[in-house]
């Protein structure tokens, strides 16, 4: 079954969504079957792939390269509502060969309220919903919102590991402690959840960034830090603006090179051939 | 009394906290009395000014330039708890002459739960708490978290106006619609709340950024867009790393020039002499 990885960090704007888009695509280009889950009510991951809300109802639609429009009647919010039993597959749109997404919009806040209504069940809800579809994929990546509330908690509890995306700057580094504490608490519901490691993003060769990456590499011995740092690269937001992943937009860009290297590091560590 | 301004945006990492720090300081350097409220459980604004939690209890302490340590026994979370009646002044630490902060840490999440417990009261709570102290200040700036939940709602309802901090990139621009909708809903409790305007941050002279700033200037006729854009400037995170505002860290930097210009634009619009 799939490896499930939550992409998380309490600090906003560090590059969680950009990582879900491009690490997801890089793994897919290596031949893995990848599912992306948009667990952020902002719905940025959904927007980036050109998934649009249907005029009526709660589903989404997306035009493929071939001009054909794929459509769902439900979204991720529906699947995680406590009383919904039709499963996750109803919410999934194709992004390419072996590459899918379960899209979201701000109606996810409704599911948040009902999960918070019964926290014991809420914490385990996403794990329960993901279980039946794990066999169809190699990787399931979960894009988390910039909070440590129920949406991130239920995502971490559903995961095999948590990827810390981090800008090498004071506010983002300070956020790490809160996330580690939250993962510790999540172990009550998912004792096996691991920290995948720290991925530095929006990296620039300044004394500040070199200072933080250096000191973190020395101080968190027990946590893996990816060798690859994602450099600041304007091709990345430009790709989003063009409704493309970085490999479609500019395969020779620093962003494409960096995300491909991260995917290779990840796959090697997972010992997938 | 004071003009109260919420610094808000659902999108994470756009520069809300950086704006609270440096716009606050710039206004203070112009001679205005400024109070900063940290309404984000991450507590980045509190960290940036070197305010530390007391070993015991819920207050904070901070060492001034003169080496003297100022101390409080309560924090903002206490003041906004529904049953607390001692007021905001107990939570306030001095940052300089006519410059103060009400600090926060992740215990603010406790207040969030109790405000959500009774939303009708919760929405009006911060407005009620701020009212008695408005007479001591010219500006009260509220740093909001990257969500549109109760903490941002109660802040907007307590405010004279809302400053939209925005990175000229797809995800941030998309967040504007949600914020406008939330402000519309907040008018049920505060009919006079205005949109102060849009402040572009982390601006770089790329075709993407020029495209977004240009198209926004043309499309949102009814909303003011500040003439000044805050340019991407590594002095800003470096100042945070040195526990300084940008004027202390490097008064000749682009960050200092830009934030000073925004303060002037704001004060002129407010017709304060
Ligand atoms: N390596 C990079 N180089 C340049 N720009 C980047 C990079 N990574 C992300 N960005 C841009 O920075 C902004 C923040 O990134 P992103 O939205 O992916 O972060 P996030 O952590 O998902 O934010 P949120 O906390 O709001 O969910 C976006 O506009 C994105 O396009
Ligand atoms: N103009 C700028 N130039 C360079 N770096 C900046 C600029 N503005 C902010 N930053 C840096 O970008 C990061 C995000 O800024 P900041 O934390 O102020 O945003 P925020 O909107 O408050 O984030 P959150 O949504 O997490 O509250 C920080 O590391 C900050 O130091
Ligand atoms: Mg995101
Ligand atoms: Mg902030």
Biggest chain pair contact, residues each? A-B, 31 and 31 residues
Poorly predicted regions of chain A: none
Assembly level: homodimer
Structural class of chain A: alpha/beta
| Secondary-structure element order of chain A, N to C | EHEHEEEHEEHHEHEHEHHHH
Specify the helix fraction band of chain A. Answer: 40-55%
Largest sheet of chain A: 7 strands, mixed
Record the strand order, biggest sheet of chain A. Answer: 6-7-2-8-1-9-10
Distance between the termini of chain A: 15 Å
Rg result of chain A: 18 Å
Question: What is the beta-strand fraction of chain A?
Answer: 15-25%
Mean pLDDT of chain A: 96
The number of helical segments of chain A is 11
Q: Label the overall shape of chain A.
A: globular
Number of strands of chain A: 10
Ligands, deduplicated: adenosine-5'-triphosphate, magnesium ion
Structure characteristics:
homodimer; 273 residues; alpha/beta; seven-stranded mixed sheet; three-stranded antiparallel sheet; 10 strands; binds adenosine-5'-triphosphate; binds magnesium ion
Structure, described:
The structure is a homodimer. Chain A is about 40% helix and about 15% strand. Chain A is an alpha/beta fold. In chain A, helix 1 (about 15-30) packs across helix 11 (about 255-270), helix 4 packs across helix 5 (about 120-130) and helix 5 (about 120-130) crosses helix 6. In chain A, strand 6 (about 95) and strand 7 (about 100) form a beta hairpin. Chain A has helices at about 15-30, 45-50, 75-80, 110-115, 120-130, 150-155, 170-185, 205-220, 235-240, 245-250, 255-270, and strands at about 5-10, 35-40, 50-55, 60-65, 70, 95, 100, 140-145, 160-165, 195-200. The mean pLDDT of chain A is about 95. A seven-stranded mixed sheet of chain A has the order 6-7-2-8-1-9-10, sandwiched between helices. Chain A is built from eleven helices and ten strands. The interface of A and B includes residues 147, 174, 178 and 208 of A. The complex binds adenosine-5'-triphosphate (2 copies) and magnesium ion (2 copies).
